[in-house]
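# nightly structure sweep
# worker-07 picked up a monomer target from the shared queue
# config: single-sequence mode, recycle default, output format = structure tokens
# input follows
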Amino acid sequence: MKNLVIAVDGPAGAGKSTIAKIVAKKLNINYIDTGAMYRAITYKCLKNDIDVDNEEEVKKVAKDTDIDFRDNNIYLDGAIINDEIRTIDVSNNVSNVAKIKEVRYLMVDVQREIGKKSSVILDGRDIGSYVFPNADYKFYLVATPHERGARRHKELTEKGYEVSIEEIINDIIKRDEIDSNREFAPLVKAEDAIEVDTTGKTIEDVVESVLGKINL
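# output follows
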């Protein structure tokens, strides 16, 4: 029996990671947060005072970095960095790193290798359209900018960050623009993806909707 590949795409804050993690647990398959991989590179650049707009320097960092997923943890050069990559600073800079073609090539190679080894659910911006165009199931999660901003605001304030919801919404809209307009593998809904609007829905509602479309 071949490995199952499920792609979950959509803009920032649409609920991709939350939903994908739960679906992975219910189906007993591996979950890969592809966005976290770009966040890891961004975090390493910021930590080492490397300008994320300097593509050559960012490419060097990406080539010299080891990223892995084990037991729902992301490892950067052997260390777990689950919380470190979720800061406002990383969020504000990750789209600039993710739009670099060579960085995407490197990360996509890792993602495809993981997909060869086991059944997976991956979430990101271009999983169904580029990384796994032949995925068994493709979902595209959306929500209004205000809803996405409110979710991210709640997440950050619970972690102790002081930031206005307006600032977060503006950042989300800016990230949408960068992700959708980048030249290589932009944020786009694959033609055969199932769109799920998560606005006003509970996590349980969305999980149920996704699982209802998967026939195993």
